[in-house]
Amino acid sequence: MHGNYHHEYMICKLEEAFHEKGIKTEMQVHVKSGDFVGFIDLVAEDESGTLLCIEVERETKRISNDYVKKELIGGESILWVIVPTSTVQKSARRFVQSMELSENDSFKVLTYGQALSGVKNLIPFSFRSLREEKENK
Questions:
Q1: What is the Cα–Cα distance from 135 to 105, expressed in whole angstroms?
Q2: CB 3.0–4.6 Å: which of 3, 33, 105, 109 could bond 92 by disulfide?
Q3: Beta bridge partners of 108
Q4: In sequence order, which residues have a C-beta less than 8 Å from that of residue 72 and are 6 or more positions away?
């Protein structure tokens, strides 16, 4: 892996939570298009083939790259950008708005705690609950 201790810790704990739900994961998934080469920190796949791409970031500056990697992985995919604190989350959300992107069913900026809770509340073998959460509010 390619991060500091906290980065690696968050990825490993999220991976463990997915495995407890019976969802398979892969770390450091390679994506490439032309001159752009990247690695997605963690990718989880439910039995329908929907991919959840997880990028752990300490700052906002790499979020645009994270979004490109999500698009390159293709298919029906969801991107979670995981940040350590609510302060960084607020900053990240402002950055996302400045890129003229918006958080929606397939792109969210979450704190580590929110992400871990989200995984633990998943319907087994399906990311369906990620999309239903918004509909039930």
A1: 10
A2: 109
A3: 80
A4: 31, 32, 33, 36, 38
Cα 94 from chain centre: 18
Tokens coding 129: 């609950």
Sheet strands (E) in the chain? 24-33, 36-45, 51-56, 77-83, 107-111
CB 36 within 8 A of CB 58: no
Task: Round the CA-based radius of gyration of the chain to a whole number and report it.
Answer: 14
Q: pTM of the entire structure?
A: 0.81
User: Please, which residues bridge with residue 118 across strands?
Assistant: none
Q: With CA atoms as reference, report the closest residue to 110 among 128, 133, 92.
A: 92
Task: Using CB atoms within 10 Å of the CB of residue 45, give its burial: 0 to 12 exposed, 13 to 18 middle, 19+ buried.
Answer: middle
Tens of pLDDT along 8-31?
Answer: 888 999 999 988 888 889 899 888
Position 110 confidence tier, pLDDT thresholds 50, 70, 90:
very high
